[in-house]
Design brief:
- The chain is α+β, with helices and mostly antiparallel strands.
- The protein has three domains: 64 residues, Uridine Diphospho-n-acetylenolpyruvylglucosamine Reductase, domain 2; 113 residues, Uridine Diphospho-n-acetylenolpyruvylglucosamine Reductase, domain 3; 104 residues, Uridine Diphospho-n-acetylenolpyruvylglucosamine Reductase, domain 1 (Alpha-Beta Complex), CATH 3.90.78.
- Helix content is 25%, strand content 27%.
- The protein is built from nine helices and 20 strands.
- The strands form six sheets. Strands 6-7-12-10-11 form a five-stranded antiparallel sheet. Strands 1-2-5-3 form a four-stranded mixed sheet.
- It is globular, with a radius of gyration of 20 Å.
- It starts with a strand and ends with a strand.
């Protein structure tokens, strides 16, 4: 276990923010984690790929970086396979590995940044698929006791971009392994967004999971800025769900309102549409801004500070609340 003091986290977060950690430790195994738990560095923060966090000030205590690797099939029958993945693996690397093994279920989640260990915390989702659709269980270590606990799908209490690890158990567990149930007899989901359109343009009538993945990657690259070129954390806000009468009032005032009826009887409104309608798309304050092509994405144009991006997020939220009576919820964690 190597302890780094006064470590700059600029390369460890996709916003590219220069924030100092008092102590920084990479955890490569459960043995290293056990060794760390016998020490005392004060407050503990756990970092995955750094793609879903906005750091607003230097961090006291210790930042643990999950670097536990490894992907393997642990159970296999004719219809599916159970795949075990270290929490420190990059999510997209797992997607690529599954495609090479012809294992399906996560092809729609291609090119999502971040680590496998962070995926169940956020219950990542895209193009009609969420992690909980393929989730089997996970293993995690309780930081306070060092005990290993297995979490089933029910234990995780998954919801839209949410889980128990963002609420009651926030910051209390270090996720070491995630187990997914991936298909060998695939049921493709191509109805969301423009996946079908992309496939049709390429004359693909009976797509494979690799072809669906390529379509998703094409869509994501056309809509979302590459964090390697411009600092960002993807979608900053969740798409809000509102009651039907509220939606009816919105449509009376804004007939062009974009909405989707949900199975739970509520209506989902795209946060990007709300933000754009409120006039924020493409707006910039110094080096902090709302992306010109995707209003859901807040960006660092070079030298923005975390608190400047945070302040912009709160201004956008207040503006949307005043105009539509809808309070946006942050998808990104703010440190």
């Amino acid at each position: 276990m190597v302890i780094k003091k006064h470590y700059n986290l600029k390369r460890q977060n996709t916003f590219g923010l220069s924030v100092m950690a008092e102590h920084f430790i990479e955890i490569h195994s459960t043995d290293e984690l056990s060794e760390f738990l016998n020490t005392d560095f004060g407050e503990i923060r756990i970092l995955g790929g750094g793609s879903n966090v906005l750091m607003t000030s230097d961090l006291q205590g210790v930042v643990l970086k999950n670097e536990i690797k490894g992907i393997e099939i642990v159970e296999e029958i004719s219809s599916h396979a159970i795949v075990s993945t270290g929490g420190g693996e990059e999510w997209h690397n797992l997607v690529l590995w599954s495609l090479e093994k012809n294992l399906g279920g996560i092809e729609n989640l291609s090119l999502i940044p971040g680590s496998v260990g962070a995926a169940p915390i956020q219950n990542i989702g895209a193009y009609g698929v969420e992690l909980n659709d393929v989730f089997h269980h996970l293993e995690a270590v309780e930081l306070a006791s060092g005990k290993v606990r297995l979490f089933t799908k029910e234990d995780c209490q998954f919801a839209y971009r949410d889980s128990i690890f963002k609420r009651k158990l926030k910051g209390k567990y270090f996720i070491t392994k995630v187990f997914l149930k991936l298909t060998k007899q695939h049921q493709l989901n191509t109805s969301y967004g423009t996946i079908k359109e992309i496939l049709s343009q390429n004359n693909i009538l009976n797509p494979t999971i690799k072809e669906v993945s390529r379509a998703v990657i094409s869509i994501r690259q056309s809509k979302l800025p590459d964090p390697k070129r411009i600092g960002n954390s993807g979608s900053f806000f969740k798409n809000p769900e509102i009651e039907v009468p509220h939606c009816q009032r919105l449509r009376a005032e804004f007939p062009e309102t974009v909405f989707y009826e949900m199975p739970n009887g509520k209506v989902k409104i795209p946060a990007g549409w709300l933000i754009e309608k409120a006039g924020w798309k493409g707006k910039r304050s110094g080096d902090a801004g709302c992306h010109e092509n995707q209003a859901l994405v807040l960006v660092n144009y070079g030298n923005a500070k975390g608190e400047e991006i945070r302040d912009l997020a709160f201004q956008i939220r207040a503006s949307v609340k005043e105009m539509f009576g809808i309070e946006l919820i942050f998808e990104v964690n703010i440190w």
